[in-house]
Automatic annotation (TrEMBL):
CDD domains: RPI_A. The active site is at E109 (proton acceptor). The keyword Isomerase applies. Pathway: Carbohydrate degradation; pentose phosphate pathway; D-ribose 5-phosphate from D-ribulose 5-phosphate (non-oxidative stage): step 1/1. This is Ribose-5-phosphate isomerase A. The gene is rpiA. Its EC number is 5.3.1.6. Catalyzes the reversible conversion of ribose-5-phosphate to ribulose 5-phosphate. The lineage of its organism: Bacteria, Bacillati, Actinomycetota, Actinomycetes, Bifidobacteriales. It comes from Bifidobacterium mongoliense DSM 21395. It catalyses: aldehydo-D-ribose 5-phosphate = D-ribulose 5-phosphate.
């Protein structure tokens, strides 16, 4: 699948997910290239159909895009609930375990997700996998002592790399933290790994989102299809 085909599938999933949003809802807006299509469609509905809802964003990037369309964005602490959060993902398996954070937004994404009544992911078909882990697992780490955290990950065989930007500088998250990517190839026991990562001092959050998502809308050449999680 080339990039144009993949973008078409991402766009179709984003447009489908935008139908979930109704007037007066509070909506978590994720981050990434698939979510950009979602926000474009929500912006179109706001401007052409008079849709009105309140958004809580998972990154400054998404906030800027949404506000550019006149979507009302508030801080997460200004709302008492989030009706639905729509976000992208890097991989998801049949047990609804996923990897997120390819765009370094995992921490705010997880905070918004756990405070949402419903979580919807939008992905293209290439992201639905049998076993997660081919996509490098992002881990958000505070800068102080990051070298020691990396050494601990190396000793465990996690094959860590510090994420760099195109200028050769370390990527910084919206919280000014660093991202260490773990090149694991296959994650057979995601819950054990999640526990190990979150109990490592210096780690703020990791990109394993295990059995959190309710619905996955998958962009497929035959039209978007829906995977529903009945085990949550
Ligand atoms: O940090 C970024 C997020 O977790 C994204 O939602 C994820 O990386 C998917 O992004 P994209 O839609 O660009 O593939």
């Amino acid at each position: 699948m080339d990039k144009a085909q993949q973008d078409a599938l991402k766009k179709a999933a984003g447009i489908e997910a935008a139908k979930i949003v109704e007037n007066d809802m509070t909506v978590g807006l994720g981050t990434g290239s698939t979510v950009r299509f979602l926000v474009d469609e929500l912006g179109r509905r706001v401007q052409e159909e008079g849709l009105h809802f309140t958004g809580v964003t998972t990154s400054r990037r998404t906030q800027e895009q949404a506000e550019g369309y006149g979507i009302r964005i508030v801080n997460i602490d200004e709302v008492d609930h989030i009706d639905v959060t729509i976000d992208g993902a890097d991989e998801v398996d049949k047990n609804f375990n996923g990897i997120k954070g390819g765009g370094a937004a995992l921490l705010w994404e997880k905070i918004v997700a756990i405070n949402s009544n419903r979580i919807v992911w939008i992905v293209d078909q290439s992201k639905v996998v049998d076993v997660i882990g081919a996509f490098p697992l992002p881990v958000e780490v505070i800068p102080f002592g990051v070298g020691h955290v990396i050494k601990k990950f190396e000793a465990k065989g996690y094959r860590p790399t510090l994420r760099m930007d195109t200028d050769g500088k370390p990527v910084r998250t919206d919280e000014n933290d660093l991202v260490v990517d773990l090149h694991l190839e296959r994650i057979e026991h995601p819950q054990d790994l999640a526990t190990d990562l979150i109990t490592t001092v210096g780690v703020v959050e990791h990109g394993l989102f295990l059995n959190m998502v309710d619905t996955v809308i998958v962009g497929d050449p035959n039209g978007p299809c829906v995977m529903t999680n009945s085990n949550k």
